[in-house]
Amino acid sequence: MKRVKKGERGYLQAQRRILSVRTAVLFCLSLAVYLLGIWSTGSNKNLLTIVAVLGCLPASRSAVNTVMFFRCRGIGAADAEKIAPHEGGLCRLYDLVFTSYEKNFEVHHMTVTDGCLVGYSANPACDAAACEKHLKAMCAQNGIRDVDIKIFRELPKYLNRLDALRAAGTEAQTTRTEKPERAQEEAAEKQARLVSLLCAISL
User: What are the helix (H) ranges across 102-154?
Assistant: First the structure.
């Protein structure tokens, strides 16, 4: 089965399946060790009980991660179908979840250029302004400057921005020969750094 990478559509669903299985296996292993200790000694007062209890720590951590992923629904099929015709030629990312000390931000679709980062969230609990502030802080901490960040809550406005970015990209492509090669390389590098950063700081 093909592994769904972070930033691809379906990543959240895939992680839910993987973490659910992992959590069940870890708890079952701890239970098996505990029962083995009782079976071999006739009591739970043995070393294997301690091993079983310690084994619950990674299992509990996995359970917490599983719950977090189940709280995030991912992009809806209807939204994905509406976005698809508008994203041609753009660098795009799906189903990213950013966490801060105060809030979590579920962003269903993002588009990245060298100096522009726009996203769309259909989650009513997502605070767009706080998400923008958090992403700007993350960019600054990682030495990425001059990035225009905008998170949309309304799909039509987001689609209009995608169309504008596509038009700007087409215009830039026609005048690419006029730009110095070094400038083109720097723009591509900045875009790659933005994508790497977004994937690194999301769940």
Answer: 128-141
